[in-house]
């Protein structure tokens, strides 16, 4: 039987002393929640997008179409498993597994609630926590990219290979910006442990204190999870299906889709944990004394998680896919420089808060560094703008040169007074007729 007791904020000391069977129960619970979350998430995304587009969405299999995802999963699991002749079979089979397993491991450091009494044992509602838990999540996200790259390379297809290379370049670009967006959180929390970061947001959520870091993370979240508008590794418009072109609609394809969804779930869970107070109740529910005790925090976490996931779906339904050069320019020329300038400002302000003696000197130094960083960024932006203007002037000059030729760019224009053109006789149409 599960008992509810007054809960305390978990710390790193609360992890590692649980019996083995408690670890197994929490691992099984997390696995079941994520598996059911994938099934429900697919249905929820299809229904939400359909309502945005004035459609019904799935409504045949089960009540409100709830069994549609189950039917699709069974269909893909029972389909014939095909292997193209030229693929590397070992890596071809291993790639979907590499995409799924790190996604499960990355979600293990997300706290769902405080310390509770589970079957007579005091244990935090979190599978595991580490002194470098956030870095562990970033590492798992980087490992999952190997699955995408190997899926593209082992398929021996040019479209799949280009999709894998796109994914590698995209993750390298946006993983840097994502890691930098966490630095301000680490400075204020003083730790990389997810449970202690949630505890540091007891008074004020970091989304309020560090709104630029949160906005940068939101952009990087789409780039890291390869969701629209940054789903360039798939790019069915120009790469057929990207890295998964040679994977038939079988169990391997289902594993790839599951890995992508779990990656999106992890991004949403990290956003809730690092910026939205984690499992802590929002205001004014937090005024209630028992809001952050027992199993109530699980409800607050799930509400924040669903709202974050709904925002991701909303963006997918609203924005088109960007070009690849725009994706790279945003990551390297905008997000990373702005992130560095913001980190310097946060470090200066935090230093002032901790060291009151040199307040004026620290503030002046921080402002000077920020102004210098913005000046450098504006310089690069000016160069880019000048190149665009030169290219536009060149195109306008070529267009003007072509428009002055009698052939109008290579297409001859016949005189209007010729009675015959290409064997067709022009007759005068009597007035009053249609």
Automatic annotation (TrEMBL):
Cited InterPro entries: NADH_UbQ_OxRdtase_su1/FPO, NADH_UbQ_OxRdtase_su1_CS
Any GO MF annotation of the entry: oxidoreductase activity, acting on NAD(P)H, quinone or similar compound as acceptor
Transmembrane segments: 20-44, 90-110, 130-151, 172-192, 204-223, 261-282, 294-315, 327-348, 360-378
Pfam families associated with the record: NADHdh
Compositionally biased residues, Basic and acidic residues: 425-434
Compartments it resides in: Cell membrane; Membrane
Region (Disordered): 395-434
Membrane topology: Multi-pass membrane protein
Keyword Transcription: no
Protein keywords: Cell membrane, Membrane, NAD, Quinone, Translocase, Transmembrane, Transmembrane helix, Ubiquinone
The EC number(s) this enzyme carries: 7.1.1.-
Lineage: superkingdom: Bacteria
Gene Ontology, cellular component aspect: plasma membrane
One GO biological process term: aerobic respiration
Self-association and partners: NDH-1 is composed of 14 different subunits. Subunits NuoA, H, J, K, L, M, N constitute the membrane sector of the complex.
Its biological purpose: NDH-1 shuttles electrons from NADH, via FMN and iron-sulfur (Fe-S) centers, to quinones in the respiratory chain. The immediate electron acceptor for the enzyme in this species is believed to be ubiquinone. Couples the redox reaction to proton translocation (for every two electrons transferred, four hydrogen ions are translocated across the cytoplasmic membrane), and thus conserves the redox energy in a proton gradient. This subunit may bind ubiquinone.
Record family assignment: Belongs to the complex I subunit 1 family.
Protein name: NADH-quinone oxidoreductase subunit H
Species of origin: Nonomuraea polychroma
